[in-house]
Design goal:
It is built from 18 helices and 14 strands. The protein has a 6-stranded mixed sheet, with helices on both faces. A 4-stranded parallel sheet has the order 5-4-3-6, with helices on both faces. It is of the alpha/beta class. Helix content is about 40%, strand content about 20%. The protein has helices at about 15-25, 35-45, 60-70, 75-80, 90-100, 115-125, 135-150, 160-170, 170-180, 195-205, 220-230, 250-260, 270-285, 290-295, 325-335, 350-360, 395-405, 415-420, and strands at about 35, 45-50, 80-85, 105-110, 130, 155, 185-190, 210-215, 265-270, 310-315, 340-345, 365-370, 380-390, 410.
Length: about 425
């Protein structure tokens, strides 16, 4: 179906979003709209970061949850509120429950990192009950809906709800109030679509000249596929690494809004997200989660068109488990072409490995992984080797020397089936 032929749905009103902002002003932190010198110099543009990573629960999710909950009737609040979440939405709802002294039940997948579970309990204290169930968000969501039906509780959706969308839209109110000049481009991370729908709807009405670019992880392009097909679909599988934005299905309401307000969707490889996380930490001392890095990671794919423009990137959150940093570094190096894994069939004779080290490895190459088991009665034995190079160009020299010496090998970076099994 052609998206242009679809019936235009009414956008959330700017007045409702402004009212939500007034209600939230004593609850949320008014986060910085911060000029970034490093990014501005790199892209020859004025790059501003909306720092929702500095929010009280370290993400914008508190805004939508609070706006939804405070709009409920007294008898609804007495029955308690429920949500399903793998992280940020759960923390936002937990904070609201503690603040408003209401009961909340939060369903989270069993694999949720302990750091996030502890954060939810810390924000919610005695007012929330965390239920771990299933292996995925969808499992937790289904159990949450069953619980609501059995207990007549109110489900607070993480994105596909008008009041939640209006609450997330308050990020846009602050951006426009704090902006010193006309904003040419706005980059917004897209998961289920609540943030992009809210902020985009507000900008469409008050700053229609601004181009709104949605940014999704390459491994979870749910909004892009919905826009291409003209209807919401459920992806068969996704890469869950960018957990704050990796959904199989966007919201029906958020899709209706996003197809009207987005100028486009940019997909960012997960490895590029990791590189951006490390750069922000090393160069600007900014700690972000993978979803929080999406909008900045997208700038590389628009570097020509944003030259000389005023650009805002929404940094959506900073709930990153420190135990993930080694994985983040690994993914970044693989994406940047600085780390390579090979299965190499060495001749089973003395000195074969020494020859490889002396004759094949370059002066700046480093072996970071080595697994080898001698195979009896065979001429050759396979070794799994990880090699880190100093620059991307060094890889070509390494390959040339391997071929020159007739090394028998497989480069498994390009074999995801083998890579996922061996590394």
């Amino acid at each position: 179906m052609d998206v242009a032929t679809l019936t235009t749905a009414k956008l959330p009103s700017a007045a409702n979003i402004i009212n939500a902002h007034k209600d939230l002003k004593n609850v949320v932190v008014r986060t910085l709209l911060q000029f970034n010198h490093n990014l501005s110099e790199k892209y020859q543009a004025e790059i501003w970061l909306k720092r929702e990573d500095l929010q009280v629960v370290r993400s914008y999710k508190l805004r939508g949850a609070y706006n939804k909950i405070t709009g409920l009737k007294k008898e609804e609040l007495e029955r308690g509120v429920v949500c399903a979440s793998a992280g940020n939405h759960a923390q936002g709802l937990a904070f609201c429950c503690n603040l408003l002294k209401i009961k909340g039940t939060i369903f989270m997948p069993n694999p949720t990192p302990q750091q996030k579970i502890k954060q939810v309990k810390m924000f919610g204290k005695s007012f929330v009950n965390v239920v771990l169930t299933g292996d995925t968000f969808d499992d937790a969501y289904n159990e949450a809906i069953k619980f609501c039906e059995a207990n007549n509780s109110v489900f607070v959706h993480p994105f596909d709800d008008e009041k939640v969308i209006e609450g997330q839209g308050t990020v846009g109110v602050e951006i426009l109030e704090d902006a010193r000049e006309q904003i040419d481009y706005m980059f917004i991370p897209v998961g289920g679509g609540g943030l992009s729908a809210g902020v985009g709807a507000y900008f469409k009405q008050l700053s229609p000249e601004t181009k709104i670019i949605g940014v999704e992880p390459e491994g979870a392009p749910a909004m892009l596929r919905a826009l291409e097909l003209g209807e919401v679909i459920t992806l068969d599988k996704i890469n869950k690494f960018v957990d704050g934005a990796a959904v199989k299905r966007v919201g029906n309401r958020t899709f209706e809004i996003c197809r009207q307000i987005l100028s486009g969707i940019t997909l960012v490889p997960e490895g590029k997200v990791c590189t951006t996380i490390l750069q922000l930490y090393n160069e600007d001392a900014i700690v972000v989660e993978p979803a929080g890095a999406l909008s900045i990671a997208a700038l590389d794919f628009h570097k020509e068109e944003i030259k000389g423009k005023t650009v805002v990137c929404i940094v959506s959150g900073s709930n990153n488990d420190i135990t993930r940093m080694e994985e983040i570094k690994e993914r970044s190096m693989l994406y940047e072409g600085l780390k390579h894994y090979f299965i190499i069939n060495f001749p089973q004779r003395s000195g074969a490995l020494r020859e490889f080290l002396n004759d094949v490895l370059g002066p700046n190459d480093d072996i970071t992984h080595f697994e080898y088991t001698k195979k009896n009665n065979r001429e050759r034995g396979p070794a799994l080797i990880g090699i880190e190079v100093n620059t991307k160009e060094d890889y070509e020299g390494l390959l040339a020397r391997m071929n020159e010496r007739k090394i028998v090998f497989q480069h498994i970076n390009e074999r995801p089936d083998l890579f996922s099994l061996l590394i």
